[in-house]
Amino acid sequence: MGNMISIAKTIVENSEQSTIYATDGDLSLNAASLVKLKSTDKIIYDKYKAPEKKEKQLKKFLVHFRRPAGYMGEYGFDWIRDEYIHALYFIERDNNSHACMSTLPLASDVAAVKATYLKDVKNPVKPYGKDYYPAWLSIFPHTNSRQFKHGSDMNKNGAQLDLELEEIEEVVSDGTTLIFESKNPHLKITPQEINIAALMGSGKQTRFLPNGVKVKYYTLKGAVNVVNKDAPLQNHEEIKVFAKLGDKKEEVGKLMVYLNNVIPKMELALVKVSHQGSSITTIDQQHVKDFEYQFKRNSFNQALIRAELKTDTSFDISTLPLIDKDVTSCLDNLYSVKKVFDPHQYLQDVIRLYEKYGEHKPTGGSIDGDANKRTYIFLSDIGAGNLYGTTSGQGDLANEFEWGNAYMIFQKGLGDRATLLHEAGHSLGLQHTFSAGDPLSGLPAPPYTFFQGHTDNIMDYTWQTNGNRNPFVAKDNLRSFFKFQWDIMRKDRSLILNY
């Protein structure tokens, strides 16, 4: 037996180990292998027992799905941006052009924005007590006609999305894995697991919120692919994200995917309007193909609306009978030297004349009537000052405003993709992102608005009220519709559900 120094009162020995019963005082050990408390017989030291392994703790963080930088509108994707709800932008003038000179959130009502982005979310979560607003994705189901009659190959390759890991506490490369779970067998995400080391390899970044708050995060570009195959989604679906380390597992995020079991159809009639001395030479067949592509694959597909160009035709006003008062009224608006040209009245005149003489006029009722299931796009090379386009519509105090089923693009807007889609958005019931409604016309107020010219939304303007350009215009990035706009457009009276 080796040397042993002890001030314990009792020592019990045997040939295999030495045991000390400690009763009081300090204890210094050398050869002792076991120490027990005499009062309870509890072992407080065991030389031969393996040291306990310290259990790894799952670090706290959130995971967000994000749209890639090269997004062109090929699927719907919406999320709540920091600048919508935090005071990050310096606003010189409000939407009435009144001096503001304050740093504010871009949205007028932060609480309403948050509530809107939680609308329809399946099983809302608050990971670690943090507010969480899932991103929304909309994609067409990739099916054949037997599986779903309105199937499409538009999103057959799915949507390739970025992942963002937002730290609540500093993360380390400790083997933590992200696990993605979809309970719908037709909604698939690949890969199904990612080690957070892959995100950390991209390097930590920092963005700043008001009051000196720093958000530290990692982004893995093109991290996951989401696809819907073989059957449409009957309901809004979720893809949950879990963080897993050992036997610990926490839900840290999710992606909402919009239902796609109903695919409304939007039929378009393109009408090139000419008059004496006007021939619309700027509109050629390549422009027409480009128009159709933008409608099909870079805009209204975000709301899972199938756009189809059904008619490409011309309409020459100069050939119409002058005995018709509607014809002379229209020409008077065009050529009169006594009054300023009224572009809004011109659209109404053209609609009225096309309903009488147009080759592809509605078979029953008026263009702006409920029975009409086509959207008429009138193209004119007439200059209308700074006006690119205008949309038909009607309403008053007694009746809620209804956008019409037609719009006109003037000379300045003929080559402008954003104008073409913006005016079509009005025809499907959308207001401007900055419009607070108009009680005099029965136009209802939205739950919130944005400051003009600060978003990438198709229904925003290309300039701000202080005269600056919308920052998204420079790279032609006005390409988004918000999820709440998807909801509105899909209910428009002009869409065809049975086809």
Q: What's the Cα radius of gyration?
A: 33 Å
| Uncertain runs | 1-16, 25-31
User: Could you name the CATH class of the largest domain?
Assistant: Alpha Beta
- How many domain regions? 3
Let me know the average pLDDT.
Answer: 89
How helix-rich are the residues, as a percent range?
Answer: 10-25%
Estimate what percentage of residues fall within beta strands.
25-35%
CATH architecture of the largest domain: 3-Layer(aba) Sandwich
Largest sheet: 6 strands, mixed
- How far do the termini sit from each other? 95 Å
Query: What order do the helices and strands follow?
Result: EEEEEEHEEHEEEEEHEEEEEHEHHEEEHH
Using the coordinates shown, work out and report the CATH topology of the largest domain: Collagenase (Catalytic Domain)
- How many DSSP H or I helices? 8
Indicate the overall shape.
elongated
Main β-sheet, spatial strand arrangement:
6-9-17-16-11-13
The counted number of beta strands is 22
Structural class call reads: alpha+beta
Overview of the molecule:
The protein is an alpha+beta fold and 499 residues long. The protein has 3 domains: 10-46, no CATH class; 61-79 and 134-257, Immunoglobulin-like (Sandwich), CATH 2.60.40; 265-430 and 481-489, 3-Layer(aba) Sandwich (Collagenase (Catalytic Domain)), CATH 3.40.390. It is built from 8 helices and 22 strands. The strands form 5 sheets. The protein has a 6-stranded mixed β-sheet with strand order 6-9-17-16-11-13. Strands 5, 10, 12, 14 and 15 form a 5-stranded antiparallel β-sheet that branches. Strand 16 and strand 17 form a beta hairpin. Helix 5 (325-335) packs antiparallel against helix 6. The termini are far apart. The model is unreliable at 1-16 and 25-31 (pLDDT under 50).
